[in-house]
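User: Here's a protein and a ligand (AFP). What would the complex look like?
Assistant: Let me lay out the input and then the predicted complex.
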Amino acid sequence: MSKTSLPVPKIGTRLHRFLYESERAHPEATGELSALLSQLGLAGKRISRLLSQAGLIDILGASGETNVQGETQQKLDALANEVFLDAFAYGQMVPAVVTEEMELPAHLPENEALGKYVVFLDPLDGSSNLDVNGGVGSIFSVRKLGGSGAVTSEAELLSRVSHDQVAAGYFVYGPSTMLVYTCGPETGVHGFTLDPSIGEFLLSAPNIRVPSRGMYYAANEGTIEEWREAPRQFVRSLQRHDKDKGRPYSTRYSGALVSDVHRILLKGGIYIYPATTKSPQGKLRLMYEAAPLAAVLEAAGGAATDGITRILDLVPTANHQRTPLFIGSAPDVQEATRLGRSVG
Ligand code: AFP
């Protein structure tokens, strides 16, 4: 990720201005990444607006399709996917987009000549919450595309995208809509809240740091019988009284990864989604769920592993690859990972 020193951020600064100031502090910047983040911001605003109309217009419920993971696609999954694709259709920066909703990358041929970024997306994470007006989010990861010419296969795409993410983040659509992103540990993690009255994201949480200890863990314990021994032991230790570690922790689990990890980012603690007997590779997707959230949490001083290996060290072999995920305050993730390495 890029190395730049940011101006002192002022609460209430508009996203556009924040990006502009960040660029000015980085003389070699071309402005492309800022433009791309603005495109992402526009998509987030449009999805936020769509969500606010759910229940009033006919956009709730299943679309009748299944996505690449074999999961039922909601109408809003498909709409959010279109909104993101539409956002990148101009500007010449993004020749290919990989999304949870499409088995193959979406190619944007008009951007192929000049475009040097690939965006990996979960357009609407947690969409099973939609029927109950629960929290949902969108997750994005931006990687540089090396080489030249059109990308012809998945293997070629993965071999040409940078190992490091140049930007990563998410939108969380809760009582208010927030954008949280990082361009790397040197630039930190910043949160913006959408002010719907002016249609702008305003800086509301500059330089977010994940607390080194928290009070919460998030896990779908309904599947605990299917977990391996290490995560089971770990969860039991979170439930045990331990004054030094502030335990027992309380459980908070919404069923939307973004909302659950956003809580951990702000309040500390750990989110775990281990491998299960049904999903031995884990359920979550590496390229557009685990890796971008890992980039955010690490840039905020936290940590993320698959139970053994740091998420950001994993080498992807497929666009829709799955992974177990342990993410949150560094001491908690380190403890879970030590157990994973010794107990299995
Ligand atoms: P999608 O709604 O994007 O398919 O994602 C749902 C999700 O991957 C993630 O957001 C949740 O944390 C997780 O699934 C919940 O799954 P469980 O029902 O297995 O806990």
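Summary: The chain has a mean pLDDT of 93.
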